[in-house]
Amino acid sequence: MNYMLLDAATPTTGMGSMLPLILIYVAFFAILYFVMIRPQRKQQKETAKMQNEITGGDWVLLNNGMYGKVVNVINDNLMVEFGVNRGIIIPVRRDQILAKKEPDLTQKIVEDAPEKAPSDAVVGEDLAEDKLDQYDQYLLEKGSKKKKGLFSKKD
What we know:
alpha+beta, about 15% strand, flat
């Protein structure tokens, strides 16, 4: 027991046990930088470049989802024209521009869906063609498809 107390009392070198822990932290932050921080900064630079290249006459998409046409550029503010009557001009900060693109106002034609085959939901609908199917037989055996409710009259 005395040997255990002596072993616990002797100081150990801290750098030898700290080095792997420091290497793990450095590797973690390096991975974090290359996976998250670097791509985000690259995207921010591209967005800032696009926002600085906007001139009058460009169509823009704002962060709130509205499309507009830039009429004039004044410092960091863009005079954006909204609406059909072209009478609505609103100043917008340059950093509120999400993308430089024109709205797609073409109407998409929806193709007609093919007609569905009629379903066998009515009793006796298929008697002329073939024998009764299982659903029709079940209904004929039970007598009615109405269920007796809690407040229905008893016969």
